[in-house]
C-alpha cells in the first residue's frame, strides 16, 4: 500500500499540509573477517569418532567459517557433513554432533578476527519484484528500504514503520531486522472484468 497522509487517515487538506513524511535509509551492519595469528588445530580421526559415535578412525576434518561461527566439515565416515564447532584461545577446534544448516561456509586455517563492520543497504530485489508485479513502475533497480516518520508543524515526529521507496513514492512494507526479510504490503483484488489483480 502506498503511504501518504490519506492512507494514515489524515484526510483533510489542512491536516495533510501539516505533516511532512520523511524516510531514513535502513542499513544492516555487515561484518567482514580476516585471519588472526593463531593456527587452527582441526579435529583428528579419533576426535571425530568421539564426537559422532563413528568407528574406524577414518574421518578427516576441515575447519569452516561463516558469519562469526566455526564449523567442521567431515569426510571419510558414515556421518559425513558439516557440524557446528567452537574454537578456544589456543586454536583448538571442538566439534559437536549438531549438523549445521548454513551454506557457503569457507575453509579457514587461522582463527578469524573482525576486519570491518560496514553499514550496508538491505537487499530489496525480491521486494522490488513484488512491487513490479503489483503494477509499480520503475521499481526494479530503484527500490530502497526506509524507516518512515511524519513530522508535524510543531516538530513532533511520529514513527510510521517501514516503507519501500521508489522515486518519490513510498509503499508500505514489513521488515524483519533479524533475518533481513522484506515483504511489500500488496493487495489482491478483482477488477471490473473479474480478473484477479495485485496492487500496491
From TrEMBL:
Signal peptide: none annotated. Residues 38-112 form the Flagellin D3 domain. InterPro entries: Flagellin_D3. It comes from the Bacteria. Pfam families: Flagellin_D3. This is FliC. It comes from Salmonella enterica subsp. enterica serovar Urbana. The lineage of its organism: Bacteria, Pseudomonadati, Pseudomonadota, Gammaproteobacteria, Enterobacterales.
